[in-house]
Amino acid sequence: MKRLLIGLFLGAAASVAAAGGASAAGKGNRGGFCGEAIQAAQERHVVPDGLLFAIGQVESGRLDPVTHRVVPWPWTVQAQNQSYYFDTKAQAVAWVQAAEARNILSIDVGCMQINLMYHPAAFQNLDEAFDPSANADYAARFLVSLHGATGDWQKAAGLYHSQTLALAIPYAQKVEEALTGKLPPAMAPAAPKPTMLTMLQAAWGATLDNPPAINPAAAPSLSPEVTLSVLAPPPRRFSRFRRSRIRQSPVLLSYEH
User: Fold this and answer.
1) Domain ranges, residue 42
2) For the chain, what is the HEC assignment?
3) Which of 47, 58, 41 is nearest to 146 (CA)?
């Protein structure tokens, strides 16, 4: 009897541990919701391997803090050139409902960022629109239709984003970068840019025998577009000339009315 109780206890503990591990894995793999749905849609509609997921990365991808990979996120909304990543489906649905009430109609939703205004018949309701399987399935069907019209998957990927070539071509390049394992440019961590303060420090340091080391990331950004040549110190004779002009010229303190 004692062995039976011990066995039952160990079995229950193993089940709890396995469930906990699966839950943790689900939380860590934040792209799992979209990833599984995208894979199923890819196989169902015979899309080239990885293409649909790469589009998802560009459309709704964000950096997973656990895996450090850019993965599509199902509760993503984009409207008025601003992207929003919500923690839950209910939050995403509520935001879209509020936006539509304010007459904001062009809204991209879900794993594959289907636009509700340009694809009004894609989903029966917002709950279905944010369902990863329904969202990915519609995206796959739309992509296949674009390939049927162009005969080229790269062109189809670009047209998935826009019918305007000036927008479609760079988008297709982003998808290609995602396919080759590179982060989309918008996702990649940018190198720190030189700021007004760091360039002033550099110009001042150039006059010293032992210039101090400067960390661009540690300085506040004032105007990163100013070039270092603008900050070059003037020749000494020009400085003396300016001082002599200041000494000889009268200073107007006020106007008499």
Assistant:
1) 26-179
2) CHHHHHHHHHHHHHHHHHHHHHHHHHHHCCCHHHHHHHHHHHHHHCCCCCHHHHHHHHHHEEECCCCCCEEECCCEEEECCEEEECCCHHHHHHHHHHHHHCCCCCEEECCCCEECCCCCCCCCCHHHHCCHHHHHHHHHHHHHHHHHHHCCHHHHHHHHHCCCHHHHHHHHHHHHHHHCCCCCCCCCCCCCCCCHHHHHHHHHHCCCCCCCCCCHHHCCCCCCCCCHHHHCCCCHHHHHHHHHHHHHCCCCCCCCC
3) 47
Residue 33 within any structural domain of the chain: yes
For the chain, the first-to-last Cα distance in angstroms comes to 111
Task: Tell if the pTM clears 0.70, that is, is over it.
Answer: no
The reply to whether 212 and 155 lie within a common domain is no
Say if 45 falls within a structural domain.
yes
Tokens representing 25 are 């894995």
Q: Residue 212 is encoded by which pair of tokens?
A: 């101090």
Residue type, 215: N
pLDDT on residue 3: 44
Summary mean pLDDT of the chain: 73
Rounded to whole angstroms, how far apart are CA atoms 147 and 159? 9
CA distance 52 to 167: 19
Q: Are residues 168 and 230 in the same domain?
A: no
